[in-house]
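Encode chain A's predicted structure.
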Amino acid sequence: MYVEERPWGSFFIMEESPAYKVKRIVVNPGHRLSYQSHKKRDELWIVVKGEAVVTIDDKEKTVPYGHSVKIKKNQKHRVENKEKEILVFIEIQTGTYFGEDDIIRYQDDYKRS
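Encoded structure for chain A:
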């Protein structure tokens, strides 16, 4: 298993095909991913440990353990872990392209472009 480290935590790809990609994403306490969008994919996030604070198009909501949220193409979105324990969620991507270069960043705590 290859784990890819990020400033906010880590992820690894559980499965991928031309039609979808499945990732397990870990967000460390007090961290969040960049506020971003994708042109070529939708995402479904399922919280499997902890509690996520999700922002979609500037609207924030809490997504507890066992619940999910859907992000459509071109929607601005981010996930944040405000808890003291790690947040783990499963991300299912569907669409036409799943590369990391299909990310448009609007804001990033770690100064990535």
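Residues 4-104 form a domain with the Jelly Rolls fold (CATH 2.60.120.10).
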